Structures are given as structure tokens and as C-alpha cells.
Amino acid sequence: MNTSGGRPNLRTLGLISSVALLIIASAPVRAQTAEELEHSYRPEAMEQALQTKERFDLYGLHFDSDKATIQPESKSLLDDIATALRNFPDWRLRIIGHTDSTDDAQHNLRLSLDRAIAVQAALVDRGIDLQRLATAGLGENRPIASNATPDGRALNRRVELDRVTDSAEAKKMLKAMSDFLGAQKTLSVGFDTVFEVVTPTDQKLGLASSGTATLARPDKIRVARSGGFADFEILYDGKALTLLGKNANLYMQVSAPGTVDQLIDTLQDKYNRPLPGADLLMTNSYDELMQDVYDSKDLGSGVINGVECDTLAFRKNDLDWQIWIAQGERPYPCRFVVTSKLANGDPQYTIQFRDWKFGSDVAADDFAFKNASNAKQVELKDVQDKIGDLPENFTIGGAK
Questions:
Q1: Residue 133 confidence (pLDDT) above 60
Q2: Higher pLDDT, 371 or 266
Q3: Could you tell me if 389 and 20 are in contact, meaning their C-beta atoms sit under 8 angstroms apart?
Q4: CA atoms of 336 and 357, how far apart (whole Å)
Q5: Strands, E, within 131-249: which ranges?
Q6: Per the omega criterion (within 30 degrees of 0), is the bond before 218 cis?
Q7: Residue 78 backbone dihedrals phi, psi, to 5 degrees
Q8: Residue 302 burial (CB count, 10 A)
Q9: Which residues are CB-contacts of 131 (< 8 A; sequence separation ≥ 6)?
Q10: Mean pLDDT rounded to a whole number for the chain
């Protein structure tokens, strides 16, 4: 599986995208230099780190300048990685290239991926099955030190090894949930969310809200959500999209013929208004959720609101996500947690579901906007801050 660090596609990430832009402290420079880490390397330390922490940063794989050609002195380190994989035949490794911020960002992405692929090829030459090796290139997107100093840039130029799991059972259970929800012509659910942000002093703050969603496939949905700073409703009847800010008694409405799946994309990409748990509401949520996933785990049973659930965990380049799925003939989601890797503190967005109803148990709704409160129609820019995910006193700052 080759990835190149593109835009995260999980729509729920839109609900925590602002977290990555909050003002946060720069990543501190580590105490050791890259040269010191290279000289202190021991193969048994690499194996132990992969065994216990599931990751290890390599500082000894040398490449020709601005190229993916591995220099001859790196042979012994490649031999050590191959030996570790032979010692642990059940391991799968994801090889991730990183660069400093010198040169163009897109060039760095390509170079980092090419270097990861070169390491992969060298391990295959040493008899390692290609199916056990995945690659990715993150370029300058995941620094561990400041790029303002030579020592910091040297630390950022590294090859990362991640031990990954590919659980067929986890994917099977997620697919069963996707098939079940996708087959429901009508459904409704209540939900409670916690949206975490991180302050400049690394304090995590949780912003809570609650809401309801009613869906009639293929082209009708109503979502209401209220919190301490926002109270809004999204309505779609297959023809028009309405965003209602209840606190300000303002609404905007646009023509948007299509399906709910298309609307979810439109809300995310055009209006930056992702629906809570939107990926789970897609007709084929499995494909949406699994795109670019490189690690999947079945963590066993858990209990959410008295319901026994299967607990699954998945990883992507820029986020981790976890889901709890009810056991039995109706495998609906009970909790969904997305953790951003784009900001210090690993902030999360959590949505917990309640009162799932399906088919004839769902209350009738024509999904049309009635304007019972005589709300004033405005442009999106006038209602945008009334349906946002952050209070007005929160300041957006620089990315990690």
C-alpha cells in the first residue's frame, strides 16, 4: 500500500480540522542529535521498540543527496531489519520516509516516498515477502524538531518503521455494519459529541453537544445539534439544502438536487459543514472509512450504554479512529472516536449514539423547511458563525 500524505478523506475529520490550526507550541527539539542516535543504535533496541511501541525511527540509512539511492554503508542496517522480520514472521512493517522542509513541499513528499520504496525493495532483495511491507512518504509534514537549525533538520530526515496489523476480522465486522446501515431505507438516531481543542499551554478542552439525525434514503435528511454556543439544524429534502441557526434565527437555503451521499460531500467540501458521524451515514460507509487505512485491529468486546459491542481500531496517515459496533443481528455503531495527528496533544472528536430506530419505527418526516420561527433568510457568510464548532472567543492559529 503506497500513500503520499494527501488530504485526509474521513469526513468526520472535518469536525476536528480546526484543532490542527489552533495555536500550539512548536515541537521541541529532542535532546539527542541524529548523529548521536545513529551511533547509539543497536539491533536489539530496534526489535524491542517494534515489539513494545510498534515504531522505531532509523538514523543510519543514508541516501545520496536529494535522491532515493541508498548508500553502501547502510547495508548492515538493512540486514538488521530483514533479520528482525525473519525473527518475527507475523510482523508487517510500514516504512515511512520523512524529510526536512528544505525544497518544495511536493518534491519532499515524492522524495520521502521514493526513499521508503527503496528501503522496501532492499528488504525484498533480502528475501522478505513484499506483502509484509507497506510504504508511505510524509515529506516535511511530520517534523519532530525545528527545521530552523541544522540539528533539527537532521532529526527530521529519517526513515520510520511502524509495526502494523491487518485484521481480517476487524474489516469483516466493519463491513457488516456498513452493509446493515446502508440497507436501511429510513433510520433515526440521537447522539452526544465531545469536540476537543488544545490550548497554547497544551490544555485539552472538551466542547459538548447533543443532537438527532433522521435519514430517508436516497435523498432526505434532517440533523439538529445544540451545544453551549451553537444551536442549528440542517435539512435536506432532495431539492434544497437549508442551514438554520436557531440562536440567531437566521437561515440560508440553496438548491442542491441529488442524494444524501452527494450532500455529505457538498457540506464538507463546499460549505465546510460536515455532518456528525457523516462517514457512517454514507450508503457504502465501508469504502469511505477504509480508504488509506494501513492498520486495523480487533480489540475484543466492550460495553456502551449496556450494549455489548465489538471494539475495532484503525489508523491512517493523519488520524486514528476507533469504533464500537453492537453485536448481534443489528450491528449499528455505538461510539465513534477520531483522533487527529495534526496537532500536539492528539485531540479527539467523539460521537456516542443512542436510540437507533429503523424502518417503520422511525417517526414520519417530510424533511421540508417550514420556517415556523419566521427566521430571516441570509447568505451563508451571515449564518456561518452561528452553526460553527468553536465558540467565538476561540482563536485559530498556526498548524503543527
A1: yes
A2: 371
A3: no
A4: 18
A5: 133-139, 158-164, 186-198, 204-216, 220-227, 231-236, 240-245
A6: yes
A7: -65, -40
A8: 16
A9: none
A10: 87
